[in-house]
Amino acid sequence: MSLTDTAIRNLKPSDKPRKHADAEGLYLLVNPNGSKLWRMKFRYGGKEKTLSFGAYPATTLKHARALRDEAKTSLARAIDPSVTAKIEKAQRLAGGNSFKEIAEELLTKKEAEGKAVATMKNKRFYLRFASADLGSRPIDDIKAPEILITLRKLEKREKLATAGRVRAVIGEVFRYAIATGRAESDPTGALRGAIKAAKPKHQSAITDEKNFGDLLRAIDAYEGRGEGVKVALQLMALLYPRPGELRQAEWKEFDLDKAIWTIPASRAKMRRDHKKPLPPQAIAIIKGMQC
């Protein structure tokens, strides 16, 4: 026998949770604490599952039956209604659905993960180009041709490398939107090859032993702009760190007894402590600075 509002109001809690059936899998679960919760039992993929429709009386009998009917329609289309419910919940929790709002969420997430300040600065820089055209648009309405308009503006200015990075960061935003249930697909994949490719600029390098020796001797003979510059050049040649790692190095990072330089995670590229062995030449240079 189906439930009625009168019957539901008269249901009393007992010492155990009790199920009171309505129809077609819908039932009301009455807990010992007096709460009355709507549930629907169904089978999908050979497994028994349960959907939650909220508490009575906030969710009325009529509303609960309507939600049950929606779930049955999904099942008729071979769609698992529990997955649909999870996606809808993720969308509610996620916040806004404009490109700019989702981009800001993604940046906040990356900052919380400890991404380097320089990395975040670059991402914000590239996203500014996208947000100027796409910022207020609902992300699931944005298609590849709209993104191409933004990239074409950079292409016309011969900012080809920038255009490639803007496409990449737009793709990051779309993938985050997909993960949080606010977009169905990433249109940036369709834009590969749509604009001119940037020509790589090869940086000159000394690969000949004699010429490299000449460079080291020139550094040793350097007398300009203070002793610190000369020491930095010598250590760069011996230790090949990233320039910022050496420029911001502190004495406490060097263990000369163990011949180890520990670059802290806050400055290391991979965001973890990075240890570099110190050759005797480097140790001699560092000790010379301490004198």
Automatic annotation (TrEMBL):
Gene3D superfamilies: 1.10.150.130, Integrase, DNA-binding domain, Intergrase catalytic core
Residue span(s) of domain Tyr recombinase: 201-291
UniProtKB keywords: DNA integration, DNA recombination, DNA-binding
Protein name per UniProt: Integrase
Residue ranges of every copy of the Core-binding (CB) domain listed in the record: 97-178
A single MF term (Gene Ontology): DNA binding
SUPFAM superfamilies: DNA breaking-rejoining enzymes
Family label: Belongs to the 'phage' integrase family.
Matching PANTHER family: PROPHAGE INTEGRASE, PROPHAGE INTEGRASE INTS-RELATED
